[in-house]
UniProtKB/TrEMBL annotation:
Residues 5-246, 266-469 form the ABC transporter domain. Keywords: ATP-binding, Cell membrane, Membrane, Nucleotide-binding, Transport. It is a peripheral membrane protein. This is ABC transporter ATP-binding protein. InterPro entries: AAA+_ATPase (IPR003593), ABC_Ni/Peptide_Import (IPR050388), ABC_transporter-like_ATP-bd (IPR003439), P-loop_NTPase (IPR027417). Pfam families: ABC_tran. It comes from Persicirhabdus sediminis. The keyword NAD does not apply. GO terms for molecular function: ATP binding; ATP hydrolysis activity. Belongs to the ABC transporter superfamily. It is found in: Cell inner membrane. PROSITE patterns: ABC_TRANSPORTER_2.
C-alpha cells in the first residue's frame, strides 16, 4: 500500500549551510502512528514544515518527500493548498503562530466550517460551538487568545487545525501546557487519527509516545539515531542517548534545604481577582520568603498564571494588597521576573539575540564571563546568538529566556511551565540551573507546572488550585 507520507534521504540546511535535518528516511502508513522524539533543536519542527511544503525562505532542501504517493516537487501551490487542512492537518507547537490574536475563538473555528465545508454562517457558528464544547471550552467562544490560558489556547488551536476534517494530522507538541485530564483527552483524539487515517506526532513526552504506539524515531543533531517499534525502543533502547532520555524522565529530585529564619519578600493579603463574571480568588493570602520554592498546580483556566501575575504586580487585584519587602525600582535592574510559558512573546521578532543581549549588557553592566558561564550551564551554543527568535526551536528560545533572567539576578522568579518545551535531558539542565541560582542568591521561586510529581519533589510547599478554588 502507498504510504500517506514518505521521506527519502531528506536533508535540510539553513542559509549558512548548517544541516538542520541530515539524510532522514521514513514513511507513514495508513492507519498508523509515527512519533518523533529528540532534543530541543534536533530539527523536529523544521521537519514537520518540510513535510507540509512550508519551509521558510532561505532554507535549502534536498532528497524527496512524497504526499499520498506524489512527489512534493510535482505538486503545484494550488494543489498543495487544497491538501492543507482538507487532507493533512497541522497543529504547530505555539498556538500564537496559528491563532489570530484579535479574532474571537468561535470565529476562528467557524471560518473553517464556512469556507472549507461551505456551511452557512449560522450553521458554521453552531459547528464551532460544538467543537468548543467537545474540548470543554464552552462559554469561551467570544474571547480572543490573550484572554485564555496556555492550555486553553492549545485546545483552540487543535479545534481550528482539525475542523476541516483532514485524515492525516501532524501535531507538534500537542499535549504541551495541558493538565492531566485534558492531556488524556487529547491523547484519545490523537488515537482516532492513528486508527482512522494517519498521525505524525512531535513530542518530548515519553508517556505520549508510549500510549500512541506505532513507530518511534529518536532524533539528535538532525539525524535519526534510533528507529523502531515504540514499545521496543522505549523499554529496551539500544542507543546511549535514548537511554539518557528515558533515565532523565525517571529522575528523582532532592528538595533544597529551607533557609534558617528566612525573611518574607512578597506578601499577598486578602487578594480577590475576577475574570469577567468568574471569581478566581477571594481573600487569598500568600507569603513568599527568600530561598523558598512554591509549586503551583491546577487545571487549565484555574488562574495559575493570573496568580503569578498578581505576585509580579502585572495584574491589579479587585481588592486586597500586594507588598514587596525590598527596595523596588522597576526602572533599574528588575528584582522580580517571569519565565513565560510562551517564549516567542518574550523577544522582539526581528532582532538577532546577540543584539538583544548586548543591549541588556550595556544597560545593566554585567560581565561577558558571567554570560558564558550561564550559557554553558544551560547548554546554549554561542553560535545561536546570531539567530533571530523565530529561527530557534521552542526549547532553545526558552533557555535564552532563562539566560536573560538569571543575568539580571532577580530576588523572585515566576517560572510558568519552564520545561514544557524541553526534552527530558535539557529539562533536567534547566531545573538544575534554577535551583542552583536560588541557593546562591537566596531568591524565591514560584514554579508552575502540570507535572505534579516534579512539583512535589522540588517544592517546599504546593498550591493546588484544584483544591483551593
Amino acid at each position: 500500500m502507498t504510504p500517506l507520507i514518505e521521506a527519502r534521504k531528506l536533508t535540510i540546511q539553513d542559509q549558512h549551510g548548517r544541516k538542520l535535518v541530515d539524510n532522514l528516511s521514513f514513511s507513514l502508513a495508513s492507519n498508523s502512528a509515527l512519533t518523533i522524539l529528540g532534543e530541543s533543536g534536533a530539527g523536529k519542527s523544521i521537519l514537520a514544515q518540510a513535510l507540509l511544503g512550508i519551509l521558510p525562505s532561505g532554507i535549502c532542501q534536498t532528497g524527496e518527500i512524497k504526499l499520498f504517493g506524489k512527489p512534493l516537487t510535482k505538486i503545484s501551490q494550488s494543489q498543495l493548498e487544497a491538501i492543507w487542512a482538507r487532507e493533512i492537518c497541522f497543529l504547530p507547537q505555539e498556538p500564537s503562530k496559528s491563532l489570530n490574536p484579535i479574532m474571537p475563538m468561535r470565529r476562528q473555528i467557524s471560518e473553517v466550517f464556512e469556507f472549507v465545508h461551505l456551511q452557512k454562517y449560522r450553521k458554521a457558528t453552531q459547528s464551532a460551538d460544538e467543537s468548543l464544547t467537545q474540548l470543554n471550552l464552552d462559554g469561551h467562544g467570544a474571547k480572543v487568545p490573550s484572554r485564555l490560558s496556555g492550555g486553553m489556547s492549545q485546545r483552540v488551536a487543535y479545534a481550528a487545525a482539525t475542523a476541516a476534517g483532514g485524515k492525516v494530522l501532524i501535531a507538534d507538541e500537542p499535549t504541551k501546557g495541558l493538565d492531566r485530564r485534558h492531556a488524556a483527552a487529547t491523547i484519545k483524539r490523537l488515537a482516532k487519527y492513528r486508527d482512522h487515517g494517519g498521525l505524525i506526532t512531535i513530542t518530548h513526552n515519553l508517556q505520549l509516545a508510549e500510549e500512541l504506539g506505532g513507530t518511534i524515531i529518536i532524533m539528535r543533531d538532525g539525524q535519526i539515531i534510533e528507529q523502531g517499534d515504540a514499545s521496543a525502543v522505549l523499554t529496551e533502547p539500544k542507543n546511549s542517548y535514548t537511554q539518557q532520555l528515558i533515565s532523565a524522565a525517571k529522575k528523582k529530585w532532592n528538595r533544597p534545604e529551607k533557609l534558617q529564619q528566612p525573611k518574607p519578600i512578597i506578601t499577598l493579603e486578602n487578594v480577590s481577582l475576577s475574570r469577567g463574571s468568574k471569581q478566581l480568588f477571594h481573600d487569598f493570602n500568600l507569603t513568599i520568603s527568600e530561598g523558598e520554592i512554591i509549586g503551583m498546580v491546577g487545571e487549565s483556566g484555574k488562574g495559575k498564571s493570573s496568580l503569578a501575575d498578581l505576585s509580579l504586580k502585572l495584574l491589579k487585584p479587585k481588592s486586597g494588597s500586594i507588598n514587596y519587602h525590598f527596595d523596588y525600582f522597576p526602572a533599574e535592574r528588575p528584582k522580580v521576573l517571569k519565565l513565560s510559558q510562551d517564549p516567542a512573546t518574550t523577544f522582539p521578532a526581528h532582532h538577532p539575540l546577540q543584539i538583544l543581549l548586548t543591549d541588556l549588557q550595556k544597560k545593566h553592566r554585567f560581565d561577558q564571563d558571567h554570560v558564558e558561564v550561564i550559557m554553558n550551564e544551560l547548554g546554549l551554543s554561542a553560535k545561536l546568538l546570531g539567530s533571530k527568535p523565530h529561527q530557534l526551536s521552542g526549547g532553545e528560545l526558552q533557555r535564552f529566556s532563562l539566560l536573560f533572567i538569571l543575568l539580571l539576578r532577580p530576588r523572585y522568579i515566576v517560572a510558568d511551565e519552564p520545561t514544557s518545551r524541553l526534552d527530558m535531558i535539557t529539562a533536567e539542565v534547566v531545573n538544575k540551573a534554577l535551583l542552583s541560582y536560588l541557593e546562591k542568591h537566596r531568591a524565591a521561586l514560584l514554579y508552575i507546572s502540570h507535572d505534579r510529581r516534579l512539583v512535589n519533589e522540588i517544592s517546599h510547599r504546593v498550591i493546588d488550585l484544584d483544591q483551593t478554588n
